[in-house]
Amino acid sequence: MPFIRSVLHLLWMAVTIIPWATFVVIASLFVSSTTMYWMCAGWLRVAVSGGTFILGIQNRVTGMENLPTGETSAAVLLLKHQSTWETLCMPTLMPHPLAYVFKKELLYVPFFGWAMARMDMIHIDRSQRAQAFNKVVVQGKRLMAQGTWVIMFPEGTRIPRGQKGTYKSGGTRLAIETGAPVIPIAVTSAKCWPRKAFIKTPGIVDISIGKPIPSAGRQPDELMREVEAWIESEMRRLDPEAYAGASANT
Fold it and tell me: Which of 12, 59, 165, 235 is the 20 to 30 A CA-CA neighbour of 82?
């Protein structure tokens, strides 16, 4: 049954993204970037709703009260990254537009990437690290000034359930450069949608939003260690089965 559900959800996403992306690319010639964002977020709701209805995956969100208030309040969201699920979900949950920092190769993915290319996000060339970070800062300042939150995965890639990657300080460096607070977020998506897995299983994905961490006067590495400590501690609380027998440093 999980295999059939997974096939059906893949078909659901493929069938819906083609007309939606085509419409968005055409509409981008006539509408604002903010309108474009919410139009694209509409398809993500379709994909996530399909995940709930077809796959049986449900979100349990806590900590929404920790998000900054105000139309132009800045924030850098730093998430645990275990699967595609949180990438799809976050724009459907957040009250502000989000700008993902992502590798430019994703722009070449048919339909999905083409629609992303029409959005006001931050795509970078990972082979040019210095120039890439400068681009993140410049665009991040502009986007946060208009009320868009920047979202990043500090481990850089999807991490298997119960494991920890290397937390890189790009997100905290951006927060310090812009004066924005950091919002740490723990996500247990691998319980239902494992990394690189085709077959997904029903269940509850916990999304826990931590309290804002001020960036003023902090050092990037030291601030990232605090973010890492909160996320990894919260992951163990939310998914203790995955970390059974693991040391605090894994």
Answer: 12
Instruction: Answer for the pair 191, 161: CB distance below 8 angstroms, yes or no.
Output: yes
The single residue listed with the structure tokens 């709701």 is: 45
Q: CA 113 → CA 116, 119, 180, distances in Å?
A: 5, 10, 28
Give the Cα separation of 132 and 15 in Å (integer): 34
Vertex 85: Cα angle to 15 and 123 (nearest 5): 85
Is residue 87 classed as helix, strand or coil in its secondary structure? Answer: helix
Tokens of 31: 């509408």
The top-level CATH class assigned to 2-243 is alpha beta
12-59 per-position pLDDT tens digit: 999 999 999 999 899 988 988 888 899 999 999 999 999 999 999 999
Instruction: Check: pTM over 0.85? Answer yes or no.
Output: yes
Distance of alpha carbon 198 from alpha carbon 104, whole angstroms: 24
